[in-house]
Write a structure and sequence with these properties.
Number of strands: 2
Oligomer: single chain
Number of helices: 4
Distance between the termini: 12 Å
Order of helices and strands: HEHHEH
Strand order of the largest sheet: 1-2
Helix content: over 70%
Number of domains: 1
Structural class: mainly alpha
Radius of gyration: 13 Å
Mean pLDDT: 90
Largest sheet: 2 strands, antiparallel
Strand content: 5-15%
Amino acid sequence: MEYVFGIIASAIGVWAGSYLLDGVKLKGFMHAVIVVVVLAILNFTVGSVLKIVSLGILSWGVFNWFLDAILIQIADYFLDEFEVKNFWWALGLAAIISIIDGALRFFF
């Protein structure tokens, strides 16, 4: 149940980010769920490798933020229903997802 809530919380973050940021386009909430599932798969595969390779390069929290933005750009490449204009919009979306996901997990 915790995983389902995590997916929904992150999907709310993606959905909110698409409304708040002009450079992020999304067709609907179901597509936000698909984006989150793709991001989870990318984070498990590509993200794990990048974290190991870059161990100790940057401050852990800042690097995770940049890594999330990179993974968002990769997800944008694979999903037609999800569009992020450039890296800076991906960085903003990563921040919004993190803030909303963290707040929802804290309160619920």
